[in-house]
Prior knowledge:
This protein is α+β, with helices and mostly antiparallel strands. It has helices at residues 6-17, 23-30, 34-46, 60-63, 79-89, 116-125; strands at residues 66-74, 95-100, 107-113, 133-140. Helix 1 (6-17) crosses helix 2 and helix 2 crosses helix 3 (34-46).
Amino acid sequence: xxxxxxxxxxxxxxxxxxxxxxxxxxxxxxxxxxxxxxxxxxxxxxxxxxxxxxxxxxxxxxxxxxxxxxxxxxxxxxxxxxxxxxxxxxxxxxxxxxxxxxxxxxxxxxxxxxxxxxxxxxxxxxxxxxxxxxxxxxxxxxxxxxxxxxxxxx
Length: 154
């Protein structure tokens, strides 16, 4: 499967919104027969476009947490600096995602904390201690639009 068509994109969009949707309902949503839809989903899985399914767990403690997006700039952009930084980032469960970037920052991290005070600890004990840092820029999230309930259409 070399490129995604409108039906594949529709399947992916529907599964992102609800990965537990029945095949029959998914097929109806994207305009395919159930058997054709199932074949498409299986091809997307075999090609690694759909790599898995997950449950997003919500509870009072998780809902009160804060996601912090952290932009990291390294002192140097060499393989040695990248390798040292990436090895260090893997050690901390508070860092949920780490992306090597183009542009002004070398890395974007998504850090999950319980509170602003907890982020102060993470900043002091973890982020500031990462090897090769030149600059750290942090932004606190307000809410995750894709994991929030959708606003009702007017």
